[in-house]
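Lab notebook, bench 4. The sequencing result for the construct came back, and we need a structural model before the next group meeting so we can plan mutations. Quick request posted to the team channel:

Model the 3D structure of this chain.
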Amino acid sequence: MLFGTTALTAPVRPAFALSELKNEQGQVQQKPAEGKETPPAEEEQKDETGPIELPMPDPLIRRNEAVTEPADETPSSDDATVEEPQTPAEIIHDIAKAPEAVRRMRELIVEAAASGDIERLRPLLGKGMTETQVSLVETEEGPVETLKGQSGDNDGIEVLAILLDILATGFAHVGAGTPDEMYVWPYFAEKPLAGLTPPEKVELLRIVTAGDFAEMQEFGSYNFYRLGITPDGQWKFFVTGE
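Done. Here's the predicted structure in token form:
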């Protein structure tokens, strides 16, 4: 006897798409509402540790501490400038102690001045580089003309008389052994007036007045006519004034 076999078959379920399977499993996608942005992911926590603070350096000048100053350097003896004391002028009253060339020039000047003719001084006054200085200011005039202009008369007689007066006094020897060596008349020009003896004051007042002497004392030195002759006999200057 044949028995009929009934095949048991599972009901056939319809096929689903992948997206439908996800929905079926409860994973429902939600679309963001239009106009709204998805909130950004939480940013990583920033490092809350602040910057490393370095200790402040000590002050360059410590006001609460004593500061030691460097000791002053004492200059060595080699660096110090040593000023040599000036040799005082030698006062001489004996003309024989002057060099021969100096005595000769003095004698020629005395002879020319005693003649009363100032022109006789011209050959003694020199020319060019050897011309005698007769003024403290520059002038285009010759030395004889300049001396005439300094005289109280038109012929220069007063200047000749002054020449005789100062050459009759003692003289001073200055700058011995140097290029500036000179024999100077009168010696008052090289001697402090405060140190004059009574006889020397008498000798000075034969050249100037008492009023002139008082002004010289106030000024501090002799400032009337003085004459200089070099050791080789050159008449170097004959000037007056400060």
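Residues 90-239 form one domain.
Will bring this to the meeting.
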